[in-house]
Structures are given as C-alpha cells and as structure tokens.
Amino acid sequence: MSDALTPRHTLLALGVVAVWGTNFVVIKLALGHLPPLLFATLRFTFAAFPGVFLLRRPKVPLGQLALYGILIGVGQFGLLFIAMSGRISPGLASLVVQSQVFFTIGLALLLTGERLRAVQVVALVLAAAGIAVIGANSGGTTTVAGVALVLGAALAWGCGNLVQRRAVGVDMLAYVVWASLFAVPPLFLLSLTIEGWPAIVAGVARADATTWGAIVWQAIGNTMFGYGAWGFLLTRYPAATVAPWSMLVPVFGMGTAAWWLAEPLPLWKLGAGALVLSGLALNLLWPRFTRLWLTAEP
Length: 298
Known about the structure:
Layout: H1 7-30, H2 36-48, H3 51-54, H4 62-83, H5 90-96, H6 100-112, H7 118-136, H8 144-164, H9 172-195, H10 197-206, H11 209-234, H12 239-242, H13 249-260, H14 267-296
C-alpha cells in the first residue's frame, strides 16, 4: 500500500474536499427557502432514492445501517442545518464541525481503552482554544447556540465514524446510500412535529430551481461522489495519507463563503481557524512525522 497519492488520486482527493467545503454555501442557499429539518429530509430522500434500487445492500446488520443513518442524518445534518438557519455563518460552521476528529478520538478512548498521547492533548487544547475564540466573538450571524449545535453535529459525526469503522470490506457508497434510507422517517417526523405541515407545504412551494439543485447536489455531490470517492481512497492508501486532506474542508468553506456570500474574514476568525487547523494537523500528521524521523536516524 503506497504512502503517496498518485497525481490522479491527488486531484480526486482535492475534488472531494472542495465539494465538502463549498457545500456549506450550497446549504445556506437552500435554507433560504426550506425549513432546516425538511431540507435534511429531502437531502436524504434523494441520497437514498433511486440508489437503493441500483446498489446491493451491504452485508452488515440492518441495525448498524439504521444507527449510522440516524447519527449522520438526524444528528449531524439535522443539527447542522438548524444551526445554519441564522445561528452560525457557513464558513465558521465548516470549521467548527471539524471538531468531529477529536470527538472520534475521545469516544475511541472511552470505548476501546486506547491511551491519549501527549501530542493529542496539545492538539485538543489548540482546537479548543480556536472554538473558544469563536464563542467569545459570537454575535450577529454567529451565536453561542449555533456553535453548540454544530458541536453537537460534530459529536454525532464522531459517533457515526465509530459505527462505520465496523463495516469492514463493504462498498462504502452502498453503505451510505442504504443508511440514508433510515434517516428519512425520523427527519420527516421531526419536521412535521417541530416545523409543522403548513411550513412544509410553504417551503416546497417557495423552492425554486436553485433550491432543488442544492438538494440534488447534497445527495449526488456531497454523498455519492464525496463519500464514495473518500471510501475509494481509504481502501487504497493508509488513513494517515488520506485523512489530513479533510483539513482543507474549512479552507474551502470559509473561502467560498467570503467569495460568494461576502462573509467577512476578520483577524479573529482567521486566528480561530488557524488554531483549530493547527490542532487537527498536529493530531493527524505528528505520528507520520515521528515515523519518518525515526526512519531517517542512522
């Protein structure tokens, strides 16, 4: 298994993180017409259909698929969409949600007994400092509630990662498509209960071509291409080679939000982003750097 991506696979990895990063602006555009839980419902409906008729169900327990679908559908995207409905800006949402890396580590420590290394403690402190800067400067389009909701989405994503790790040797695209099927019913029931039938009808009536395009992009670009290509790379390269690419997601997210939505980039936001990304980089790259250093020693 090679440690370096080929030029073609490098472009593929760059395409994935570009889609995931710019996706936050697409979410914001759709939320201008749709209630957040209805938007999440439609997003996972399009992710599941017609894919479930075209892809064979992966050979994993239905309970695992259902748990993953609920964690990612209701937990991650449900909370994320609610947060982005006026509680946090797209650029900062793309940054804060990357804290899922640390939730994943913490849950692994709790459930598997893995030990936390000193470098991971430093990485956690750096990322926490960045999130604290965001909280201290929250206001207007970024609120404490918005940051808390995105942190909840990141926690759900981290839980989903641990569930997905158990699906060894399966088609990850089929796994995500079939899991999406289980996200639709609870999301629709939550939308019906919290947002109400009149809001659902009004949201569908207001939806224009851009809104439906955003829904389709969520399903095809973000899920089928994004998660499918990411799984393709993970089966061909070490995780330490592929995973650091996710650090570019907030770079694309904040850059696209600044360009397309004129989201400002004050120094505190750049500083917060640098702290969070430094923590992520330290956690992901330090083990590989250590191995290279020891290998280079005479």
